[in-house]
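Many introductory courses stop at the sequence. We go one step further.
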Amino acid sequence: MKDDSALDEVVRFHGHLCPGLAIGFRAAKLALERLGAQRSKDEELIAVVENDSCSVDAVQYLTGCTFGKGNFFFKDHGKQVFTFALRSSGRAVRIALKRRDLRQGEPSVDDREARTRWLLDAPVGQLFDIRETEMPMPAEAVIRKSVVCDRCGEEAMPCRTKKDGSRTLCIPCAREAGLASLE
C-alpha cells in the first residue's frame, strides 16, 4: 500500500500497527468507497462489527461511527465481519475476511510484520468477500434523562434500571439485590 496518511492517523489512534488494525483499515476504506460515503459526522453512516479486536479501532476512526453517537453496533460473533450502511439510501455492504486457506500468498501468522504488510497490500478480492446487502436500520440514538439509583446514588438511564418495590435500582445494584431478570 502506498504511503497513506490515514493509516498513520489510525496507528496513532490505536497505538501500534498490527494485522487486526490492517484488516479493519482495509475494510473501512473499502466500505466508504463502495458506499460513496464520507466519515460520519452524526448518524448518517452505520457500522456493525462482529468482533472486538484491533480491527474495530480502525473502523471507528475512519468511519466516525461510535457508540456515543449511536451509529456503531457490536455483535459478539468473533468474526472479522463488518457491515456498513447509509441511513439515507438504506444501501449496505457486508465485508467478511476470507478464510485463511483462501487468502493466497499470506505470510505466516508468526511473522506479524510481513503479515501486516501483506494485509495492507493484497488485492481486495484476496482478502474479503464483499456483498451488497439489506440491513434494517436501527433506530436513531435517543437522549434519555437519567434517574438516580436508590441504592448507590449514581445516575443511570431509566431503560437500564429495575424496580424493586418502590426503589429504582441500576443494573449492578439490582444484581446485588438478587433481582432475577435484568435484560
